[in-house]
Amino acid sequence: MAQVNISFQDIDQAGKMIKLIGFEGQLDETNVDSEAKKIYQVITEMAEPNILLDFAGLEYMNSKSIGYLTDWYSQVTAKNGKIVIARPRANILDILKVVGITQIIDTLENLDEAKAAFSGAAPSEATPAPAAETPVAAASQQAPVNQAPTTPPTA
Predict the structure, then answer these.
(1) Which residues is 138 bridged to in the sheet?
(2) N or C terminus of the chain: which is more exposed, having fewer CB within 10 Å?
């Protein structure tokens, strides 16, 4: 059974209350449902939820946890809040990129920049998490392969 520890901390960022949620360990089938409830409770309790997910200690997340992440995003934005991901490890960042999470949720490599993202700093002003080249991206950058002629040769 995988273990995950989730910590909660309130942060005042330029007058805006942010809930910093830190992850240590692995989110998998054995624990993701019970741990997700804790985050839903935070979102429910905040009038305008501003959630900073610190993934520095997150070693693994399964597909179900990705589903929860997208649902948290939907619930937070429905209440005019914001959700930001900070400091994901390379393997987690790869997953987030492949499934498109980084296109909807600001994902930053520095905790201070992630906090600043709640103060109105545009994502372009912050340092995004480093780009990880996926096999698909690598393949699309290769030179095209010579293709066979489309018309059959005549005899």
Answers:
(1) none
(2) C
* Model pLDDT for residues 59-117, shown as the tens digit of each residue: 999 999 999 999 999 999 999 999 999 999 999 999 999 999 999 999 999 999 999 99
The whole-angstrom separation of Cα 153 and Cα 84 is 58
15 and 49 Cβ atoms separated by less than 8 Å: no
Residue from 67, 113, 107 nearest 84 by CA? 107
Contact indicator for 26, 3 with CB cutoff of 8 Å: yes
Cα 33 from Cα 99, distance rounded (Å): 20
Nearest Cα neighbor of 57 from 20, 27, 82, 24 is: 24
DSSP the chain: ---EEEEEEEEEETTEEEEEEEEEEEE-TTTHHHHHHHHHHHHHH-SS-EEEEEEEEEEEE-HHHHHHHHHHHHHHHHTT-EEEEE---HHHHHHHHHTTHHHHSEEES-HHHHHHGGGT--GGGS-BPPP---HHHHHHTSPPPPPPPSSPPP-
What domains can be seen in the chain, in order of their start residue? 4-134 (3.30.750.24)
